[in-house]
Amino acid sequence: MFYYSNLDTFFSLAMSVINRSFVATAGTLIALAGCATPAPFPLRNAFPRMETRHIPELNATGKAGVGDPMISTEWVSRVRGISIAETVSETVNPPGITSVVRGDYELFATSLEGDYYHGRSTYSVPGTSISVSERAGVFVPDDKSRSAVIYNFVQRYRYGTKPVAYVPKEIIKITSESFRRELVYSGVSQNTITVVYREFKDSSARPAFTQELKYDLSQHRVIGYQGARLEVLNAGNTGITYKVISLLQ
C-alpha cells in the first residue's frame, strides 16, 4: 500500500507541474498573439478592369473630318490612377535621389495602409551616371489626414516626407487584349457618302476586316452598320455632322 501511495503522489505532483507548465505556455502564446500586428506591407496586386467604351455616346451629336472616325467601340483596360502636376525629388534611399516625374501613375498594389502607384519615377546618385532599377513611386495613405509621399523599395520600403500633390484619374490603356471597331468618314460625291469600317487589334489595323461602304442620302438620311445607326445632319467634302441613334456593336 505504501508503494502505491507514493506512486499516486508522484503522478499527482507530475500532473500538477504539467498543468502549470501548460497554463504558462498558453498564457505566453496568448500574450504573444495579443502583441502581434499585421505585416505593414502585405501587398496585393492591382488588376486593370476591361470594359467597352463608346465614342461618341448614345444620342450625342458628333463631327468628323474626312479620314476621321465617326463612331467607335473599343474594348479597353481601365486602371485607377493619379496625375501629378509637379515633379517631386527627395533622398528617400540614400545616397541617391528618388524623383516622381510629373504625369500619370497607375495603381500598382494595395496594402492595409494605402495604395502604391507606379509611373515615371527615377533614381540617381549625385556625381555618377549610373542607372539604378528600383521600385519607386507614390504612396497614397487611406488616412486622408496624411499626405501622399514618395516611396522607394529595394529590400524594404522607405518613405519621403515631402507631400506629393495629386488628383485621382482613371487611366485608359490599349493592351494586347484591346479590340476596336470604327466607322471612318471618307467623303461625299453626288449625295453619296463613303464610310470605311475598320477593326483594330492591339492598335494594329486588320486589313481583312476593313470594308468600304456607300450610302445614298437621297434615299435616307440614316445610315447604319454593325448595329450603329447615324442620322446624317450635314455632309460635305471636308467633314460630316451626325447624331448617334444607336451604338456600334
Would you summarize the structure shown here?
With 249 residues, this protein is mainly β. It is 14% helix and 50% strand.
Distance linking N and C termini: 97 Å
Low-confidence stretches: 1-40
Mean model confidence by pLDDT: 79
Q: Approximately how much helix is present in the residues? A: 10-25%
Q: What kind of sheet is the major sheet?
A: 13 strands, antiparallel
Number of strands: 20
Descriptive keywords:
mainly beta, disordered N terminus, about 50% strand, single chain, four-stranded antiparallel β-sheet, 1 helix, about 250 residues, 13-stranded antiparallel β-sheet
Can you offer a commentary on this structure?
The chain is mainly beta. 14% of the residues lie in helices and 50% in strands. It has 1 helix and 20 strands. Strands 1, 2, 4, 7, 8, 10, 11, 12, 13, 14, 15, 16 and 17 form a 13-stranded antiparallel sheet that branches. The protein has a 4-stranded antiparallel sheet with strand order 3-20-19-18, with no helix packed on it. The N and C termini lie far apart (97 Å). The relative contact order is 0.16.
Topology (SSEs and partners):
Elements: H1 2-35, E1 44-45, E2 49-55, E3 61-65, E4 69-84, E5 88-90, E6 97-100, E7 103-110, E8 114-118, E9 121-124, E10 135-141, E11 149-153, E12 157-159, E13 167-173, E14 179-189, E15 192-201, E16 204-205, E17 211-216, E18 222-225, E19 228-235, E20 239-246
Antiparallel strand pairs: 1-7, 2-4, 3-20, 4-7, 4-13, 4-14, 5-6, 6-9, 7-8, 8-10, 10-11, 11-12, 14-15, 15-16, 15-17, 18-19, 19-20
